[in-house]
Amino acid sequence: MELGLSLDGSSKPFSFLEKTPKLSSNDHLGFCMGLGRSQEKRDSLEAERRGNGGDLKRVSSDPHLQLHLRLPWLFDNLHETGLSKGRGRGLDVNRLPMVALAGEATVAHSSPNSAVSSFQMDFWFRNGNSRGNRGMDSETERVSSRASDDDEDDNGSSRKKLRLSKEQSAFLEESFKEHSNLNPKQKLALANQLNLRPRQVEVWFQNRRARTKLKQTEVDCEYLKRCCETLTEENRRLHKEVQELRALKTCQPFYMQLPATTLTMCPSCKRVTTTSATDAKIGI
DNA sequence: GCAGTGGAGTGATTTACGTCA
DNA sequence: CTTGACGTAAATCACTCCACT
C-alpha cells in the first residue's frame, strides 16, 4: 500500500510517483512521501536563476524529494536504501600518519586547535585588518602565504579546514538570502569582496543549499508525521462510525427499511391506491 | 578549575549525474 | 550519437567549538 502526500497543493502532486519503482512485496507497509515544489514555485525559482545573469545552464534536476518509509516512521530505513553507504574513496591525506606529511612541515606545525586559523590570518593580512597585527611569527606567515594561494595543492594535502570569520559568514548569508545559486560572475565578485577563493564561495553555497534542504526536509517530515497521525485518527474514527451504523442497521425492524408509501385517490374512478414514495417521485 | 567526551556546526573533498555545446 | 566540460547534489570526512560530566 502506498500513500502519497503532497505539501504544496499542486494540481499534479505525484507525477514523480510514476517513475518511482514499485515497492516490492517485501516492503511491508510502505509509505511514500513526495515533498515537491509547486510548478509555480519551480517557475519562480527558475526565473530567479535566469535573473542571476542567465549564465546558469540548467535548473536542479531534483525538484522533488522522495522518501520511502516503513511505518511507523522508521527513518532508519534511509540507511537501508543506501544513503549511508560509503563509497570507495581515494587517498585521504588526513588519514595518513603525520610522518607522511613531513613534506608539509609548515602545515603540520600549525596547531589544529589554534584559535587563529590559517585562513583568518590570510584574511587579516589581505584586508589589512587590525586584528592581523597580532604578533605572528614567521611560521604563521608561512601558513598565511600558503593559504592565500589560489590554486589547490597538487598533492591533495589541502584538506585543511579554515573557519570563516563572522563577517564573512554574515555576508555570505545575506547573499544566500538573495539568491541561493550563484553564477560565475557573482561567485567571483563575492570571492573578491570577501577575500576568499571562488572555490570557497562555491563550496559555502553548496553546503548551505544542502543543509537548508536538510533542515526543510526535517520540518516537512515532522509536518507529514503529524498529518499522518491526524489521518490515522480520523480513519479510526470513521471505521468506528461505520461499524456503529452497520450495527444499527441490523437492529432496525424490517418495516423501517421499506420506502414510505402514500395513499392516493384516482380522480376518475375514485379508487384509493397505494403508491410508494419512489413511484410517486418518478410519476408512476 | 580542568581534562575527557560526545554532539553539533561547518569547511572541504569525492563521486555521480544531468545538461549543453 | 558520442564526448568532454561544467555545474550541482549527495555523501562523507575532518576540524572546531561547546556543553556536560
TrEMBL record:
MF GO annotations: DNA-binding transcription factor activity, RNA polymerase II-specific; sequence-specific DNA binding
Region (Disordered): 40-60, 130-164
Coiled coil spans: none
Pfam families: HALZ, HD-ZIP_N, Homeodomain
Record's GO cellular component terms: nucleus
SMART domains to which the protein is assigned, alphabetical: HALZ, HOX
Biased composition (Basic and acidic residues): 134-148
Superkingdom of origin organism: Eukaryota
Protein family according to the UniProt entry: Belongs to the HD-ZIP homeobox family. Class II subfamily.
Annotated protein name in UniProt: Homeobox domain-containing protein
